[in-house]
Request: fold
Amino acid sequence: MKPIPVIRAAAAAAAADLLQEIGAPVECLWSRSGMPARARIDRESFVPMHLTLRFGEEAARSLDAPDFGVWIARRFGLGLTGRFGKAVLHAPTLYSALSVICSMGTMHNSGARFWLATEGDSVRLCRRLRTADGMFRQSDLLTVELMVAVVRSVAGPDWRSAQVALQSTDPQRVCPPSLLESLGDGQIKDGCLATSIAFPRALLSRRIPGLEDVPAGTPLDSEWLGRTPPTEFLSSVDLVIESTLEAEQADVAVAARAAGLSVRSFQRRLADAGASYSELVDRVRFRKAMDWLHDQHVKIVEIAFALGYSDPAHFTRAFRRWTSLTPLQYRYLHGLAAQQTAGASASLSALPEGLRDARRRSPTTERSQETAATRAARCATPPPGRRGRSRPRAGSRDRMQ
Reply:
C-alpha cells in the first residue's frame, strides 16, 4: 500500500512570506488550507502534499491572481525549494542539474516523479504528481516556470520552450489563454499524463555560467538526507494526523482530505492496514505528549491545546488512560528519574502539593526499593489518592493536576 504523498514545506512557507509582505491575509489562508503552523518555521519538514496544493489554489483565488504560481517562481527561483533547489544550482552542467532533479526529486516531494524523455533531437523534462484530480494549476505553473529557468541558465534569458504540457486541468478557465501562451512558443496542452517542457538535446552538455563549480553528484548535507519521507502507509498517516492536530482539525474527514482521498477510501485503507483512525490519533497524541512533557518550559495547558483538545481536562483523562498517571505526575516522576540518574536526589518537600500524600503512600518509596526511573518508565498504576478519599468512579470528571 503506497504511502500518502508528502512534500517539504519550503515552497509554501516562502509563498506565505511573500503574501505577508504584500498585506494578504496569510494566516487565514494558511489555516483554511489546513497547513500546520510549524511548517513556516521548520521549512524542511514534511507536510501532506495535498495541503500545499490547496494553499496555492486558495492564495490565487484570494488575490484574484491566476498567475500566482508563475509570480512566486519568478520572485524566488530555485531557492524556493530550499536545500533541494540549492543542490540543483550547484550542478556544473544542465545534464547534472536535471540528474539531481530526477534522482532527488522524491526526497523533496514523495508524490512527484521526474524523468527525462528523449524525442529525436529534443529532450522532454517531465513531472507527474500522484493525485486523483487535476485541481493543482498553480503548482503546475510554478513547476513549468522553474523548469524553464533551469534551461535558461544555459540557453539564455529569452529562451522559450516549443512544447509545454500541463497535467492539471482548469475546467472553469480561471487562467486566461494569454497566461498559458506566455509559458512557451507552441500550443499549451493541459490534462496530459505529466507536466513537461521540451528543449534541444544539445543543451545538456552546456556548463551553467555564474554558478559555483561543484562536481556533479555532490551530496546534500546529512541532516537533509536523514529526514526522509514516510515509506509506509501508516507512518504517512501519522504525519497527516500531526498536521491536522496542529491545525486543530483532527476530524477523519479533514485527514482524508489532506491525504487526497475520500473518507470512505481513507477508512478502507486504514482497515486494510489493520488500524483505525481513532487509534492512530491516540498514538500520535501520546507520542507528542511524551515529548513535550519532557520539556519543563512547556505548560500542560499548552500541550493540551496543541494536541487538539478543547479542554485540558480531556487531555488529563486521555493521558491517565494511556499511562495511569496524570500529566503532572508523569512530568514530576520523569524529572526525578533524571535527577537520580545524574546522582541527585529530590526531597519530599520538593513535590507539588497535590502529590505529597500520594508520594508518601506510593509503591515508589524506599520501603519498596523501586526507583522513580523505573516508575516513570513503566507508567504503572497511579499513586493512590489522599487518605480517606476513594478514586473517582469511571466517567467522573478528572481534575487537571
Summary: Confidence is low (pLDDT under 50) at residues 344-373, 379-401.
